[in-house]
Write a structure and sequence with these properties.
The protein has 16 helices and twelve strands. It is of the alpha/beta class. Strand 1 and strand 2 form a beta hairpin. Helix 7 runs antiparallel to helix 8, helix 7 runs antiparallel to helix 15 and helix 14 packs antiparallel against helix 15. It binds guanosine-5'-triphosphate and magnesium ion (MG).
Length: 461
């Protein structure tokens, strides 16, 4: 389905200018293509960085009316070329990396020269796809490459790196190994039908499947946290007018994005800003103060605030510690009581009242309590710091497959517990669960799913 017998080429470094730009070749003819475009005559040595010149493509010369013999084409850049012979390379194929000066013109010229010499322009993600197809990476690791490249916070990078290192794959294959053991026993029993459950008692099977379900539960229970880290969270600041929502928004965002005045009803629209809070990629949203008003613009702002409240992963409910609680405060506290929220008493510097019990006391203008607030936000979203270091599932595809596997296992466990269920019946559910595990790590993943996963990559990855 996926061709891997041709040689692909692409710029591997990001678009734009830089000190160095890298062009990567992968495929059976990588070495021949590279040799055809470098001026060095001696063969490239494996895994040795070699300084040489690179020659421009023939066509470019010809169109400029300067067609010349191959060996007198002028050089276009000084480069360092490294050849990684198969299978000791990223893709498992012959790979040549050409480090040139990071000019889009030069890099494009190298790609064109490689294409003239027989390579083809790579599709998005094709290098990593080849690494997967040749068994250099499993599918979880290949997806982790994309996540690592896309990471916007150190925590996202760490979770992705963990998965690249195979931590999650190991947890899944350990669980699968326990299942394999059970399947083998049940199949053996099938081979000796007269003996009934020959190699294992039904109660014992139920108990062993139950243990596997428990392990899946603990893996899946981390998933919410993992997904929050990978995909980021929406944190919405709400409160009645003038309590300091926009002031808080600005200090958390580290910029004066939102207008702050002492006039209640200043903010009329949603203001959003991406911020890193304790490693979590947060979309922070400032909203209009909640109150009944006849001003049409403000009314629209308030209704947008209500909508933003609904999609929030976490609410920061801001109150004003320098005044007594009002009806608007109380209403908002009631309305958000069942939501994931942090109640904040702002203007702590002018606190006149003891404030709401349990509220986090801060001063947006003086900066008091902000470190604690950041910590509290990260903890609400991803659990406490200790937990954040363990391997987590962060990918929705993985979560969905593992949940399906769990459903099959629960069915098999209950059937086993019900006694005299035929082995075939249990086996089909156990096998279905194992197929889901295989699909997570990519042993049996449909081609269209693979295509979809690798399309997410950019060209050159
Ligand atoms: N003393 C003190 N004043 C604050 C603090 N935070 C905000 N303020 C002041 O409170 C007033 C209102 O602040 P905003 O941030 O505009 O309040 P808001 O909740 O966004 O108001 P609306 O957009 O009208 O709903 C401004 O004059 C701020 O300077 C604080 O921690 N201490
Ligand atoms: Mg405001």
């Amino acid at each position: 389905m996926f061709a891997t017998d041709d040689t692909i080429v692409a710029i591997a470094t990001p678009p734009g200018r830089g000190g160095i730009g890298i062009v990567r070749l992968s495929g059976p003819a990588a070495l021949q293509v590279a040799s055809a475009i470098v001026s060095r005559r001696a063969p490239l040595e494996p895994r040795r960085a070699t300084f040489t010149r690179l020659r421009a493509r023939d066509g470019a010369r010809a169109s400029a009316g300067q067609a010349r013999r191959d060996d007198v084409r002028p050089p276009i850049d000084q480069v360092v070329v490294t050849w990684f012979p198969a299978p000791g390379s990223y893709t498992g194929q012959h790979v040549v990396e050409i480090s040139a000066h990071g000019s889009p013109v030069v890099l494009r010229g190298i790609v064109d020269a490689a294409i003239d010499a027989g390579a083809r322009l790579a599709q998005p993600g094709e290098f990593t796809l080849r690494a997967f197809l040749s068994g250099k990476l499993d599918l979880v690791q290949a997806e982790a490459v994309a996540d690592l490249i896309a990471a916007a916070t150190p925590l996202q990078a760490r979770v992705a790196f963990d998965q690249l290192e195979g931590t999650l794959t190991r947890r899944i294959t350990d669980i699968d190994a326990a299942l394999f053991d059970l399947v083998a026993k049940l199949e053996a029993s099938l081979d000796f039908p007269d003996e009934g459950y020959h190699f294992v008692e039904p109660a014992e099977i139920a108990q062993q499947i139950g243990a596997v379900v428990e392990r899946l539960n603990s893996l899946l229970c981390d998933a919410g946290r993992g997904r929050m880290i990978r995909e980021g969270a929406t944190v919405v600041i709400v409160g009645r007018p003038n309590v300091g929502k926009s002031s808080l928004f600005n200090v958390l965002a580290g910029s004066d994005r939102a207008i702050v005045t002492d006039v209640p009803g200043t903010t009329r629209d949603l203001v959003t800003e991406p911020v890193d809070i304790g490693g979590v990629a947060v979309t922070l949203v400032d909203t209009a103060g909640a109150r009944n008003t006849i001003d049409v613009v403000e009314r629209e702002g308030v209704s947008r605030a209500v909508k933003a409240r609904e999609i929030a992963d976490l609410l920061l409910v801001v109150t004003d510690a320098s005044e007594a609680l009002t009806g608007d405060d109380q209403l908002l506290l009631d309305q958000t009581a069942t939501r994931r929220r942090i109640v904040i008493a702002n203007k702590h510097d002018r606190a006149a009242t003891p404030g709401i019990a349990g509220a986090l006391r801060i001063s947006a203008t003086r900066g008091d309590g902000l470190a604690e607030l950041r910590r509290a936000i990260a903890e609400e979203l991803t659990g406490d710091e200790a937990l954040r270091d363990t391997a987590a599932i962060s990918n929705l595809r993985h979560v969905a497959l593992l949940e399906e596997a769990r459903a099959h296992l629960i069915k098999a466990r209950d059937a086993a517990a019900a006694q005299n269920t035929p082995e075939e019946f249990l086996l089909s559910d156990l096998q279905a669960a194992r197929a889901r595990f295989d699909e997570v790590v990519g042993v049996r993943t449909p081609d269209d799913v693979l295509r979809h996963i690798f399309e997410r990559f950019c060209i050159g990855k």
